[in-house]
Design brief:
alpha+beta; SH3 type barrels; five-stranded antiparallel β-sheet
């Protein structure tokens, strides 16, 4: 099962206007921000990520709420975080 998981934008990648580095539970990965880039995305913003794409911009309170709910899934949440940790979007 693939879940939408919150991540915080830590930097935009200079080599592409479609990629940003996002931190999810301490793991930093590149994600595609093309679907939300025209919404005024900034460093420090939270996004909901699904299969390597930022699907929407969310606020910090919603990010915390979503993360709390995801943690209740136990093993499925752990698997999703492991998938993020092993993913590579360049």
């Amino acid at each position: 099962m693939c879940l939408g998981i919150p991540g915080q934008v830590v930097e935009f990648l200079a080599e592409s206007d479609q990629l940003a580095r996002v931190e999810v539970t301490g793991v930093r990965r590149n994600i595609n921000i093309g679907l939300v880039s025209d919404e005024g995305l900034e460093v420090g913003d939270w996004v909901l990520i699904h299969v390597g794409f930022a699907m929407s911009i969310i606020d910090e309170e919603e990010a915390a709420s979503v993360m709390d709910g995801l943690k209740l899934l136990g093993e499925q949440f752990d698997t999703e975080v492991a998938d993020i940790a092993s993913s590579r979007i360049e």
